[in-house]
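#onboarding

Welcome to the new folks! Below is a worked example of what a typical request in this channel looks like: someone posts a single protein sequence, and someone else replies with the predicted structure as tokens. Don't worry about understanding the tokens yet, we'll cover that in week two.

Example request:
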Amino acid sequence: MVNSWVQWLTTAAVALLHPFFVSVIEIQHNPKEASAEISVRVFTDDLEKTIQPYSKEKIDLLKPTNKAATDQVLSNYILKTIKIKVNGQTVKPSFLGFENIKESTWSYFEVPGITTIKKIEIDCSLLHDYEKNQINIFHLKVNGKEKSYKLDYPERLVSFDF
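Example response:
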């Protein structure tokens, strides 16, 4: 009885500390540089648990022991779970790096050679393999226009016209 009470209190405390599973993906067109700049923000602990099965080494995004291997696992996972088409053409973003800001990990990507954007289509299953309550929020800024959308699991597809 006491043991089940302790388990219930522990579960409630964890839920209060981290009650939702959300990522924020921002895509901004930079016409001056002819590129699309992408940032992906995810809670660090969720991201570590999600990408751990894809690595032979222990994943620690705060203090990576092998930065190159961590970069590879992180970029491979994100590029596998976020697929983007610009103007009907599939693009492959280049991984620029990541940083930790408070409890989140920010990953940065760039797609060069994007002079104009009329349409962006996104297939996103980021963290779907970790949490069934995952929410992926998109913010796009193209030609001075800002658009946003929220994908709730299991929804994966979103399209923006500019």
